[in-house]
Design brief:
With 277 residues, the chain is mainly β. The protein has one helix and 19 strands. It is globular. Its main location: membrane.
Length: 277
């Protein structure tokens, strides 16, 4: 959750999700990032996944409260994003479009204040989808919901709700999603024995299929430059990750995924290297 106000709906359960999902991958990723004193940031990424290679080049220019980001990938897609902060106090506006799909344009407003936060996004086409999310509360406890309404079919295509309780060394969250068909409950606790790391448990249930998944995970800070993470669910899926900061803001991440029932069956490994001179 954000230190100011309740945070956005996407912040509910975010810390736990990062331990269980962030940086786990079975791809090979190489990224070079650089910055200039004029506010220009450049990123070049090459990804190899399932024998196929792809990549993109991104440039972001920041000036005062404005930012322009342009990303071009190997499939000739061009994503352009314009961001303006503090148009009014505590508000941010974002406009984006992906070419050559001219109907992909979107305009979004984000507002974050002491006791309320919301986002509104509208597609820039003839039959736009309208996305809305909102939370209310404090940095310690927040209630929120999100929904999406399709004007082309005239009905809501998504609605989720959640609550988050945050304490100094732990936080818990409950999210009701998939139009009420699923529920996810998570709890995270920070432990001094893990040098600032944490343990997390998550239970997810899909009501239509009576399917339950229990996932436990932890992060351990080996030293200021090295973090180890691991996760395991009741289906026997095991994941492990090591991330090391080579130099300031340059990271090497190595991850693996296994089936504990048969460790020799299709283990998946991946790595990512982010270099920032």
């Amino acid at each position: 959750m954000s230190g100011k106000g309740p945070g956005f709906f996407s912040d509910i359960g975010k810390r736990g999700r990062e331990i269980l999902t962030k940086d786990y991958n079975s791809d090979q990723r190489f990224t070079i990032s650089s910055s200039t004193n004029t506010g220009l940031d450049l990123n070049s990424t090459l990804v190899k996944s399932r024998g196929l290679s792809s990549g993109d080049v991104a440039a972001e220019f920041k000036y005062n409260n404005k930012a322009v980001n342009v990303k071009v990938d190997t499939e000739s897609n061009v994503l352009t994003t314009f961001t303006v902060s503090d148009v009014v106090p505590s508000a941010k506006t974002i406009a984006s479009i992906r070419l050559p799909d001219y109907s992909s344009g979107k305009f979004e407003v984000q507002y974050l204040h002491d006791h309320v936060a919301f986002t509104v996004g509208v597609g820039l086409n003839c039959s736009p989808a309208v996305d809305f999310s909102g939370t209310m509360g404090t940095p310690s406890i927040a209630f929120g919901a999100e929904t999406s309404y399709s004007t082309s079919v005239g009905k809501f295509t998504k609605y989720n709700a959640g609550v988050c309780l945050k304490m100094p060394s732990s936080n818990a969250s409950v999210i009701l999603g998939d139009k009420g068909d699923s529920m996810k409950v998570s709890y995270l606790h920070q432990l001094d024995r893990l040098n600032g790391g944490a343990v997390v448990g998550e239970i997810s249930r899909r009501f239509s299929s009576n399917e339950n998944t229990l996932t436990v995970g932890c992060s351990y800070v080996v030293d200021p430059q090295t973090v180890v993470k691991a996760k395991l669910n009741n289906h026997g899926n095991l994941g492990a990750l090591l991330q090391h900061e080579l130099t300031r803001k340059s990271f090497l991440t190595i991850s693996g995924a296994f089936e504990t029932k048969d460790l020799d069956k299709n283990p998946k490994f991946g790595f990512s290297l982010l270099l920032k001179p």
